Automatic annotation (TrEMBL):
It comes from Mollisia scopiformis (Conifer needle endophyte fungus). GO terms for biological process: cell division; meiosis I spindle assembly checkpoint signaling; mitotic spindle assembly checkpoint signaling. One of its GO terms (molecular function) is anaphase-promoting complex binding. This is Mitotic spindle assembly checkpoint protein MAD2. Coiled coil: none annotated.
């Protein structure tokens, strides 16, 4: 009887971790769309308003952008559930100069990961790496988690007050830092970190669940 009970507990934990992973992946989806809208990477008329997290969110209605984000999210969801992700980065690049002008970084800490070794990519980027043995956070209600997520999106929206206005046409790329042993689809390729040269950094808010913590940082080019 006790053995069966332990198995049941294991199943419950896995379900909780899966739910938390999907919540984080969904947060990344809305974060990418919000950054593209707020930073004017695409015209405002290319976005559709939806209700999420108790807020009015804007998501891209451009077919190419939607397809790109969908492809990312499809793989990201699998990697998140597998505990393979340490970081997601959205890089905005000038089409005219090829210079990276903004870099939005979301660092992921995974609790109760069972002491797995970090990836080679994470080891190579120790400055921004998540602690390997982070202590789990206390249980949180859905309302508490939503409130923390709301605060992040409000900060992203308010970022226009301190970020330099983007000049000319821009494009974006999404980088995912996955463990070295992750299964990587053929269409994904290795990339450099696309850091901002001599940029300023601003730490934004974080949110956490019982199983994950996500920290947010934006780097931007200083206009002389």
């Amino acid at each position: 009887m006790s053995v069966e009970r332990e198995k049941d507990k294991s199943k419950v934990h896995k379900l909780q971790l899966k739910g938390s992973s999907r919540l984080v992946a969904e947060f990344f989806n809305y974060s990418i769309n919000t950054i593209l809208f707020q930073r004017g990477v695409y015209p405002a008329e290319d976005f559709t308003a939806v209700k999420k997290y108790g807020l009015t969110m804007l998501i891209s209605s451009d077919d190419q952008v939607k397809a790109y984000i969908k492809k990312i999210m499809s793989q990201l969801d699998k990697w998140m559930i597998g505990g393979k992700i340490s970081k997601l980065v959205v890089v905005i690049t000038s089409k005219d100069t090829g210079e990276h002008v903004e870099r939005w970084q979301f660092d992921v800490q995974i609790f109760n990961k069972g002491g797995k070794k970090g990836s080679s990519k994470r080891s190579a980027d120790k400055e921004n790496a998540a602690p390997e043995d982070a202590a789990p956070t206390p249980e949180k209600t859905d309302a508490e988690i939503q409130s923390e997520i709301q605060s992040i999106f409000r900060q992203i929206t308010a970022s226009v007050t301190f970020l330099p206005q983007l000049e000319g046409d821009c494009t974006f790329n999404v980088l995912v830092y996955a463990d070295a042993d992750s299964d990587v689809p053929m269409e994904w390729c290795d990339s450099d970190a696309k850091e901002i040269k001599n940029g300023e950094k601003v730490q934004l808010r974080s949110f956490s669940t019982t199983n994950h913590k996500v920290d947010t940082l934006v780097s931007y080019r200083v206009v002389s």
